Amino acid sequence: MRNFITLLRRELGSYFLSPIAYIVSAVFLMAAGNTFLALVSYLRSKPLEAGIMTFFFSTVFFWILVILVVTILTMRVFSEEKKTGMIEVLLTAPVGDLEYVLSKFAGAFLFYLLIWIPTAAYVFILRHFAEDITQLDMGPIYSGYIGVASVGFLFTAIGCFCSSLTKNQIIAAISSFAMMLGLFLIGLLLHTGNFEQWQDILGYISLPDHMLQFSRGIVDTRHLFFSLSLGVLLLFLTVKAVESRKWKGL
Amino acid sequence: MEPSTPSSPTFTRSRKYLIAINTVVLIILIAGILGLLNYLSNKHFRRYDWTSTGYFQVSDKTRELLTSLTKDINIIIFFSPEDSNYQDVLLLLKEYENISNRIRVQKIDPSTNRGRAAELKDKYQINDNDENVVIFDSGSKAKYVVSSDIADYDYSDSTSAQDARRKAFKGEEVFLQAILNITEDRQKNAYFLTGHGEKDINSSDQMDGYSLVATALKRENLRVSPLNLFEKTRIPEDCDVLVVAGARSRLAQHELDEISRYLKKGGRMLFLCTRNRETGIEDLMVEWGVNIGKDQVMDKTLTKTGRDLFITQYGIHEITRKLTTPTATLATVYLLPRSVYPIKTDSADQLDKPKVSPLLITSPNGWADVDGNMQHNRGVDLPGPIHIGVAVEKGNLPGVTSRGGTRLVVVGDADFAADGLVHIGSNLDFFRNSVNWLLKRDELIGVSPRTLHEFRLELTSAEFTQLGWIVLFAIPGVFTGMGAFVWWMRRR
């Protein structure tokens, strides 16, 4: 456990020391800010009857933004060390593979959550300018953030997994971007109405659908469980991939 | 095959294979376990509604209905995603799916799925004008509801019908009606009396046509037929509601006797009177505690042409419950109706008498013109407020168990539901609610709509610009600044 904490601190530290992490955060917050301004200007002229948070998650643009952010945050997580050979040093240290992987994952996931924190300012702004403060329903906002966290958990796991498979950061980035995008797009298929027989399954795995419900105030344990369990599976695979370096003979 | 050298204590090829297989098996196992866990999670899940209004709660009535379904119901959301009701409809029906596995929900987008769209329009005979609909199909029966029926709108701010803001979402009650309709065993029958100049269900004449209400009733899965009682002499056994709308001449004695007999046996009747005409039924109504005035009711303060009468006050009754919502009171319009009010009785013999409840009440400025000179003469004419519509109910009669007791709705005017007036105000709703109450479909009335909380912002242009700076530059700027700082630090 102590190793885990140490590694985690080191991991977070490396994020805070990396200019790229800041640039990514800045770009993300700018884009989120832009969407927020669009929401504000809409609300000035017409009231919105329901689902304020859905404004953010109903656009493909925003999803791609989130996918990009997570991809960039996770692309160097395992690849870099593979490249610099640091991994051998680490692997020979008395650190378990599991602890190692989890600390990397936790570092990336925590940073992802950190980036979202400034968006809480938007909530305060809404409350400040609201014509009738009682009408801002906080429930969907909380559940919306839970959705953001659960999707982030899954995406970060994807990013870590892809990163653990290759030395090359670019390849890691491309493959994890593709995987996240793929998962997202499968969910979109649900809305085209072409795959009627698959609708049950598609509904279960459709991330856009989950997010829609989270942002309207519905917290469904199935949505949470799906993201968590798939994330856990991917983390398990990541551990296996890291282990495999031992006997692959790097 | 390389021989393993004794000096390398690490991994031989065969050992590698073993580990590989071991790993693959382990992966499959874990994946399998997770798949199983997900399956279980799908069976035993919890869904929480964090909205402060309980927006997605499903009422007990609906829950009861859904869990007691004996047939599978296929629901098709035939909507374009831009419709303002789309999300709410989708999420509500998802809840239904969760409650009962006899419910299956599909989504079809009419604009992207033209082939399927055309099929559906054909199969369910959807009007071309009806754009976004939700189709309910139980296999043997089907019904569709239109998007505009699913919400209450506020037109005050908007320039077009599209812009209208939703005030309340009525999805639950509308869907409840629809599901009930298609799962009912027997199609119910409404008979419209003919032969005395009544309104004609096959005509679309503005004043004498009742084709629109007939269509509305058919949409509720009622069979609508004319009834010539003079010839037939008996009211059919399968009559679930008798409608006498705007009769202009006196009924024959045997017709009146038959109607009286029908009512005493737990019959249901909607009686819409005609000004200046006596049909004989008015006298019959006295037995049931209703007095129909030989007059015409007017209200200078709630009228447009002097002949029409707006009603905005309703008695407390299931039929009119929905006409007085928290957000507005809906108006119904009548043409010079007759007064219809309960006959006062001694409280002593109350139990045996029919229960008469006023439904439609004029404002205090309304008055009944008894002498017909269109002028209020004190002493002759009656001052307001005047009742122009009542509902009558007499409890379960011994020996008549299948129908329940007798129910009557008497309104002093039949023109309000004619094709020319029925779409004004809430006339159609009132007609429909009356019929539904008469058919004793209690379940349809009373599920409350969800009021929508409107969220609006107030800020000046200056504030907006300031906001823009903060949100687009200041906040991200902090991060850029930190990044620059870090980069500079690392260079040193």
Describe this structure in a few short sentences.
The complex is a heterodimer of chains A (250) and B (492). Chain A has 250 residues and is mainly alpha-helical. Helix content of chain A is 80%, strand content 1%.
Assign the structural class of chain A, choosing from mainly alpha, mainly beta, alpha/beta, alpha+beta, or little secondary structure: mainly alpha
Strand fraction of chain A equals under 5%
Which strand order spans the largest sheet of chain B, edge to edge or round the barrel? 9-8-10-11-22-21-18-15
Regions with little confidence, pLDDT below 50 for 5+ residues of chain B: 397-403, 441-446
Give helix % range of chain B.
Answer: 25-40%
Instruction: Work out the number of β strands of chain A.
Output: 1
Topology:
The complex is a heterodimer of chains A (250) and B (492).
Chain A lengths: L1 H15 L2 H27 L8 H4 L2 H15 L4 H6 L1 H7 L4 H20 L3 H10 L8 H27 L4 H24 L6 H7 L1 H10 L1 E3 H28 L2
Helix pairs in contact in A: 1-7, 2-4, 4-7, 4-9, 4-10, 7-9, 7-13, 9-10, 9-12, 9-13, 10-11
Chain B lengths: L12 H31 L3 E3 L10 H8 L5 E6 L7 H14 L3 E6 L5 H10 L9 E5 L4 E5 L4 E4 L10 E5 L1 H13 L4 E6 L17 H9 L2 E6 L1 H4 L6 E7 L7 H12 L3 E5 L8 H7 L2 E3 L3 E4 L8 E4 L1 E2 L3 H4 L10 E4 L4 E3 L12 E7 L4 E4 L12 E2 L3 E8 L11 E6 L15 H12 L11 E2 L9 H31 L1
Parallel strand pairs in B: 2-3, 8-9, 8-10, 10-11, 11-22
Antiparallel strand pairs in B: 2-4, 4-5, 6-7, 7-23, 12-17, 13-19, 14-16, 15-18, 18-21, 19-20, 21-22
Structure overview:
The complex is a heterodimer of chains A (250) and B (492). Chain A is mainly α and 250 residues long. Helices cover 80% and strands 1% of the residues of chain A. Chain A is built from 13 helices and 1 strand, in the order ααααααααααααβα. Chain A has helices at 2-16, 19-45, 54-57, 60-74, 79-84, 86-92, 97-116, 120-129, 138-164, 169-192, 199-205, 207-216, 221-248, and one strand spanning 218-220. The longest helix of chain A is centred in the C-terminal third of the chain and has 28 residues, at 221-248. Chain A is globular and about 60 Å long. The model of chain A has no long low-confidence stretch (mean pLDDT 82). By secondary structure, chain B is α+β, with helices and mostly antiparallel strands. Chain B is built from 12 helices and 23 strands. Chain B has an 8-stranded mixed beta sheet, sandwiched between helices. A 4-stranded mixed beta sheet of chain B has the order 3-2-4-5, covered by helices on one side. In chain B, α6 (211-219) links the parallel β8 and β9. The longest helix of chain B has 31 residues, at 13-43. The model of chain B is unreliable at 397-403 and 441-446 (pLDDT under 50). At the A-B interface, α2, α8, α9, α10 and α12 of A face α1, β1, α3, β3 and α12 of B.
